[in-house]
């Protein structure tokens, strides 16, 4: 697991050997079974996890029992309820493994120590935090202003393999659509792709 994490870090920035050693000593490698919960509502999210393998969803449950998916995390993504993590308050969310998964996990105490002692790592995290904030804003805008077709296309672009790995109803929840609407959008998208392929073959012939 650590080898994949180190490779990811090298892609994001330059860390010293001392910083890499510090990260290795501060982290815990953890295997999570499919359908196992990393976090449940009412617990404090006192960890941050780096996904080495597998996938997760962060979701909330309404008073009426309806699930609302707020985030997915796949390989080379980070997962936590960051609101609870930063505030120390009980979480309103659940985090569930959608597949058998592997994590590099940091407790809040270890995480803060690493950020203080490893400035190059902190710079990587600061850059990622800024990008994630921008992505979060863009998603809110997309869900309130764009068509179902565009939302689905953006999802496929952002998660090019995930839509074949998880149930359709979770994707619909994430996109703010009904399952029926998403099924219609996917069907039309498939027909459009097929038409493009057939047209390109005709031109070539």
From TrEMBL:
Extract the InterPro entries matched here: cNMP-bd_dom (IPR000595), cNMP-bd_dom_sf (IPR018490), RmlC-like_jellyroll (IPR014710)
* UniProt-listed PROSITE patterns: CNMP_BINDING_3
Looking at the record, the residues that make up the Cyclic nucleotide-binding domain are 15-115
Protein name listed in UniProt: Crp/Fnr family transcriptional regulator
